[in-house]
Design goal:
Elements: E1 19-24, H1 32-45, E2 49-52, H2 71-83, E3 88-93, H3 95-118, H4 123-128, E4 133-138, H5 154-175, E5 178-183, H6 190-199, E6 203-205, H7 215-228, E7 234-239, H8 252-263, E8 267-271, H9 283-302, E9 310-315, E10 318-323, H10 324-339, H11 343-349, H12 352-366, E11 377-383, H13 390-403, E12 407-411, H14 414-420, E13 423-425, E14 444-445, H15 453-463, E15 467-472, H16 474-486, E16 497-501, H17 517-533, E17 541-547, H18 554-563, E18 567-569, H19 577-591, E19 597-603, H20 612-622, E20 628-633, H21 645-668, E21 670-671, E22 674-675, E23 683-689, E24 692-697, H22 698-702, E25 705-706, E26 711-712, H23 721-727, H24 745-749
Parallel strand pairs: 1-2, 1-3, 3-4, 4-9, 5-7, 5-8, 6-7, 11-12, 11-14, 11-15, 15-16, 16-23, 17-19, 17-20, 18-19
Antiparallel strand pairs: 9-10, 12-13, 21-22, 23-24, 25-26
Length: about 750
């Protein structure tokens, strides 16, 4: 049991005199440990006593604990809790475990009455434990729990799957093979669906939306078309619970036999199995587990006898609380809908995010460009530094553009290429296989367009370009603002413009996330893991690590949360020599205990005088005799590598959405066969804001930007910094001003379109 230290401050008194028990149950999922760590440390920070429940078992158990299914087992569990004065329970598990926990809470009064009657507990104990608060966190790789965008472990499972898919892709291309991959997920097709989006699969079988009758002919036609288009491989993804319209199972072997028999292709089956549960958690799952752990403790300590048992989850990037049994009910409704063959309802009940993913997949995989053309031409370009996921965005932009009947042009080397006429037609097959490629296939430059207005206008005129989709970082945003300024002089620039933010720095105004930031964050996190591991078995050591990001502290902060850093120095949060001194002293005290590793992150432009060398020298001097120091500047490795599943999927959806918007704008701005777009809303940035993908006029975003430091004036992730400090055992005030309120699942279903 972890004992609370003495504290002062409002939040730090919340848990005084209270006890919290935390347990994990059901199937394991990567990221659960981060959640447990957060519950324990934040619980202790509030002054509460925190207990571990080992192996689930008789204190609460799970759907997999037979003992707990009996009244006798639940009586034992209740007595164990009452004897320790535990009235707050944090359960991390799947729907079975959470349903069991809710049943336990509903029976609590009668369990106590029975224990009192049989002498199992005293009247005083019963009085002190008169009600039980329960908060759930969903830990499941299947992402099958309705009401939450992502369950803990799902993103890590996708990482494992994509590593294997990428490896298989290279071997399949060598031999011209067809691969049938079976992924986990029980009766939920989420893993299969996102995998197929992220690798550009030819076909996916998911239980929520079985293929139409006669799918065998359609599938074979698809595979033949792909091969005729020049592709050397086919990938088919099968969810383990896949069925046909009549409820009959579709197995990976069924699919293989069909392809071999009908087409004679060399076909192999790979069943991924439990490898999807293994490995280290992704950066997203570590941060998700940490954030949910903090929220769970707050929900428990703010709970009353009238508060329903709730689940803490994520919607977009917002922490939300949802009534546990509403979530369980909607999750059951999905199964009922599938059993009753109401497949459209099953997809809808899975939530808006699932629906959007399914619609984008169907567009990209099942619809071919129409024979009738729209008569419009769109150009796509990359601007700024390369970011993983840019190619996925270009691929979906091109393919969705072709589906709309547009002529699609690729511009090489950004605005400079646009000025120099480095423009070519780009076809459906040309972008095949781009989803998993890092960097920028089109080539990208930081050059801004102002000095090239005449040349750019000439190129737009020569190629008859009616709309521009610009994928890039801060330069893409600034360059597009310059193009808008140029509209007054150059009529050719009066065309719709859409900016898609793509940069590792995540510093573009108007979007909480940029394409490429997740990949960079995972690179930093895994590198920090390796660096810390390199010192295993040696004496105490502190690592000072410099991250990229320009003046934006997103990477340093999030990597700090994911890697359990002791400090993360950023430009947005001013720090003095006194702060550095406090950090060094704090770390020195920690190192005198059982702690052997320290991690300190520094954003590259956080302070011009307190450089990485300065901080390294300071820690080295002050730690003499207690720990030694090492420093690492991570550099451009943060821009490289294959994109993560999130960046592939995010890029794909952003590309698809931008084309739909620009197609509507072109129609809106058409006058007698000519396009004239001169209003503020004809040049927009597509960004992820809280829970929704929204188009915002560039001129409005201008007001929200600090141009000198190339960052937005307000950044959502700064609110997460206190969590970083509390998890590093600092006694500070936790600002929960943006407190997650209880919402309702069905209400959430019909809220604005989310990702």
């Amino acid at each position: 049991m972890a004992q609370p230290p003495k504290h002062c401050g409002s939040r730090e008194h919340m848990g005084a005199g209270k006890a919290i028990a935390v347990l994990t149950s059901g199937g394991d999922a990567q990221g659960m440990n981060a959640a447990v760590r957060a519950v324990v440390r934040v619980g202790i920070y509030t002054g509460a006593k925190v207990y571990f429940v080992h192996e689930g078992g008789t204190v609460i158990g799970s759907a997999r604990c037979q003992d707990f299914r009996t009244r006798e087992g639940r009586l034992k569990a209740a007595r164990n809790l009452v004897k320790r004065g535990i009235t707050n329970l944090c359960v991390i598990g799947g729907d079975g475990s959470l349903t069991g926990a809710d049943t336990f809470r509903a029976e609590w009064s009668s369990l106590l009455a029975e224990l009192l009657k049989t002498g199992g507990i005293t009247a005083e104990e019963a009085k002190k434990s008169s009600y039980l608060n329960i908060v759930g966190m969903v830990g499941s790789i299947d992402n099958d729990f309705c009401g939450t965008d992502m369950t803990i472990g799902t993103d890590s499972a996708l990482h494992r799957i994509m590593e294997i898919v990428d490896a298989i892709t290279t071997t399949a291309q060598s031999h011209q093979r067809t691969f049938v991959l079976e992924v986990m997920g029980r009766h939920c097709g989420y893993l299969a669906l996102i995998t197929s989006l992220a690798c550009g699969a030819d076909w996916v079988f998911i239980p929520e939306s079985p293929p139409e009758d006669g799918w065998e002919d359609h599938l074979c036609r698809r595979l033949t078309e792909t091969r005729l288009g020049g592709s050397r491989l086919n990938i088919i993804i099968v969810a383990e619970g896949a069925i046909d319209r009549h409820g009959k199972a579709i197995t990976s072997d069924d699919v293989k036999d069909l392809v071999v028999k009908r087409l004679g292709y060399d076909t192999r089956v790979t069943i991924l199995g439990h490898v999807q549960r293994g490995g280290t958690p992704s950066a997203f799952d570590r941060i998700l587990g940490s954030r949910m752990g903090v929220e769970a403790v707050m929900a428990l300590l703010e709970g009353t006898p009238d508060t329903p048992a709730c689940v803490v989850s994520l919607s977009g990037n917002q922490a939300v609380r949802l009534p546990l049994m509403e979530c369980v009910q909607v999750t059951k409704d999905v199964t009922t809908a599938m059993n009753e063959k109401r497949f459209d309802d099953a997809v809808k009940l899975r939530g808006r995010s699932f629906q959007n993913n399914w619609n984008v997949y169907k567009l990209l995989a099942h619809i071919r460009p129409p024979s009738t053309k729209s008569g419009h031409t769109l150009a796509v370009l990359n601007v700024g530094a390369p970011a993983a996921g840019m190619n996925a965005a270009v691929r979906s932009t091109v393919r969705i553009g072709l589906i709309h009947g547009h002529r699609m042009l690729a511009v090489h080397d950004g605005f400079e290429g646009l000025a120099l006429g480095k423009v070519e037609d780009i076809s459906w097959d040309k972008v095949g296989g781009w989803t998993g490629l890092g960097g920028s296939k089109l080539g990208t430059k930081r050059t801004l367009p102002k000095k090239y207005f005449e040349e750019i206008s000439a190129t737009i005129s020569t190629f008859g370009i009616h709309g521009l989709i610009i994928i890039g970082g801060f330069e893409a945003f600034m360059g597009s603002l310059e193009l808008m300024e140029g509209r007054a002089k150059f009529e050719e620039l009066c065309i719709p413009i859409c900016v898609i933010p793509a940069t590792v720095s995540n510093n573009v105004p108007g979007s909480d996330f940029s394409i490429g930031a997740d990949t960079a964050l995972n690179t930093i996190t895994t590198t920090c893991d390796r660096i810390k591991q390199s010192a295993a078995g040696t004496k105490r050591r502190v690592f000072i690590i410099e991250t990229m990001g320009g003046y934006c502290g997103y990477l340093a902060t999030m990597a700090g949360l994911a890697g359990g850093a002791d400090a993360a120095y950023i430009f947005e949060e001013h720090f003095s020599i006194r702060d550095l001194q406090i950090n060094v002293e704090h770390l020195t005290e920690k190192m005198k205990t059982t702690v052997k590793r320290g991690l300190v992150l520094r954003n590259e432009h956080c302070n011009e005088n307190y450089t990485t060398d300065f901080i390294y020298n300071l820690y080295t001097e002050e730690g003499k005799g207690i720990f030694d120091c090492r420093k690492n500047v991570l550099g451009h490795m943060q821009q490289g590598g294959a994109p993560t599943p999130f960046d592939r999927n995010f890029g794909t959806k952003m590309g698809a959405k931008s084309v739909a918007w620009i197609t509507g704008k072109i129609k809106e701005c058409s006058r007698h066969g000519r396009i004239f777009a001169n209003t503020a809303d004809s040049a927009c940035l597509l960004g992820m804001r809280k829970r929704s993908l929204v188009f915002q006029p560039l001129t409005e975003l201008k007001e929200q930007t600090d141009f000198e430091h190339r960052i937005p004036k307000e950044q959502w992730w700064l609110k997460l910094r206190p969590i970083l400090k509390i998890l590093a055992k600092y006694n500070i005030e936790l600002d929960t001003s943006e407190k997650a309120l209880m919402e309702h699942v069905r209400q959430k279903r019909i809220s604005q379109e989310s990702m």
